[in-house]
């Protein structure tokens, strides 16, 4: 990847070269609270000691990256936000151990051993069957001793599903802001709420550094159903194939497309994992359909005629209806309550808006894949070509693809039980 910081003054790069080889980030910055969305995210160090980075970077990429960090800390005005991102991510890297070393340890927990072996097989499949990057990502493992690696904060106005953007170094403008600490994320959400925004804090089990670092396997997702582990690995590696600065719906929809195709292909050769995943995925598909239906109704409400007071009243009615429909849906699941936590907190525009971010262009990308005869390398090439066009042109073409019969077939495929596709 070309350096984003190549034109920095030489004195900053000299500082970076002095700093980088030591592999140390001062633990004194660990109280700062925010994350660079897809790459650097915030985790508080467990001690006040310096964090030693074990992961080796490509020298030029590492130096350029360090130059960027120095620039940020020197003058961007968001020192706390970026410092927690840097310290948090390097803490994750510090905690990671090579999978090969762990598997060589006879005292390793048998359950973890089995999961790591499966994850390595999935990682190899991503390269050989999906043409995803063959690098050091997901060749190591870190136990963070918490349920999520980061917490993303989404915010939206009271009468719109348009998410508030945060514009950050490297990744550009994105529709969320991430923290390694739940408390820090909630504090930022509370600050936005006081300013009139509706907010949603979402725990995130995995993220991508876009190939700048070797992202590790994490305890936050390693014990999920095997196909779900595969889905996450395929998704995060897809971000290393393609990332468009400042276009979250494009990036996430592309990654969701790759993960969807990848999981279905992987399950075709792993029927033992399919039954386990069918139940897991069936609930998620029905939940997605429920939320998407109400999202469309809210969009129509906010874009229609009527006073703000009337729209607010109708909004409350829709959210009440959504809760009732979820209870009816849950009753048909025979006791499964996996989405109760999502409904436990307030339903609001930020929560609904965050849902759309990951799926907006998936049918369009699936249609493009079909045009490329389901050949993933050809699909990647076509999407990369599309990504180089101005955003307004990209969106116009994706909108056209969304209206094709191939996109309609993709929607039906996404909504169909996995059993129907074997």
Automatic annotation (TrEMBL):
<keyword id="KW-0031">Aminopeptidase</keyword>
<dbReference type="Pfam" id="PF10023">
    <property type="entry name" value="Aminopep"/>
</dbReference>
<keyword id="KW-0378">Hydrolase</keyword>
<dbReference type="InterPro" id="IPR014553">
    <property type="entry name" value="Aminopept"/>
</dbReference>
<dbReference type="GO" id="GO:0004177">
    <property type="term" value="F:aminopeptidase activity"/>
</dbReference>
<keyword id="KW-0645">Protease</keyword>
<protein>
    <submittedName>
        <fullName>Aminopeptidase</fullName>
    </submittedName>
</protein>
């Amino acid at each position: 990847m070309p350096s984003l910081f190549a034109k920095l003054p030489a004195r900053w790069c000299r500082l970076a070269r002095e700093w980088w080889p030591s592999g140390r980030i001062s633990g004194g910055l660990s109280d700062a609270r925010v994350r660079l969305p897809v790459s650097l995210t915030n985790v508080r160090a467990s001690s006040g000691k310096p964090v030693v980075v074990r992961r080796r970077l490509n020298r030029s990429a590492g130096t350029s990256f360090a130059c960027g960090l120095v620039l940020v800390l020197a003058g961007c005005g968001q020192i706390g936000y970026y410092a927690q991102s840097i310290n948090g991510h390097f803490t994750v890297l510090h905690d990671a151990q090579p999978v090969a070393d762990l598997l060589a340890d006879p005292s390793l927990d048998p359950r973890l051993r089995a999961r790591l072996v499966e994850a390595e097989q999935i990682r190899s499949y991503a390269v050989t069957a999906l043409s995803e990057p063959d690098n050091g990502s997901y060749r190591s493992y870190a136990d963070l001793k918490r349920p999520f690696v980061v917490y993303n904060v989404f915010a939206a106005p009271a009468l719109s599903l348009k998410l508030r953007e945060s514009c950050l170094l490297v990744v550009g403008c994105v529709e969320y802001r991430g923290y390694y600490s739940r408390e820090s994320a909630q504090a930022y959400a509370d600050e936005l709420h006081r300013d009139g925004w509706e907010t949603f804090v979402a725990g995130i089990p995995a993220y991508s550094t876009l190939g700048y670092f070797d992202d590790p396997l994490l305890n936050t997702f390693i014990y999920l159903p095997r196909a779900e582990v595969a889905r996450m690995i395929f998704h995060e590696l897809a971000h290393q194939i393609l990332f468009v600065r400042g276009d979250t719906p494009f990036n996430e929809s592309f990654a969701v497309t790759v993960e969807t195709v990848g999981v279905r292909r992987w399950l075709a050769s792993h029927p033992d994992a399919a039954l386990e995943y069918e139940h897991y995925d069936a609930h998620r598909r029905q939940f997605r359909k429920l939320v998407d239906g109400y999202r469309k109704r809210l969009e129509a409400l906010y874009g229609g005629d009527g006073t703000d007071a009337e729209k607010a009243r109708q909004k409350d009615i829709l959210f009440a209806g959504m809760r009732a429909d979820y209870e009816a849906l849950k009753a048909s699941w025979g006791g499964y309550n996996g989405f109760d936590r999502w409904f436990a907190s307030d339903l609001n525009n930020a929560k609904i808006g965050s849902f759309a971010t990951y799926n907006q262009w998936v049918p369009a990308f699936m249609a493009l894949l079909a045009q490329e005869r389901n050949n993933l390398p050809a699909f990647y090439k076509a999407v990369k070509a599309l990504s180089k066009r101005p955003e307004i042109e990209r969106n116009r073409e994706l909108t056209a693809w969304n209206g094709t019969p191939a996109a309609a077939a993709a929607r039906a495929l996404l909504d169909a039980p996995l059993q129907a596709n074997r």
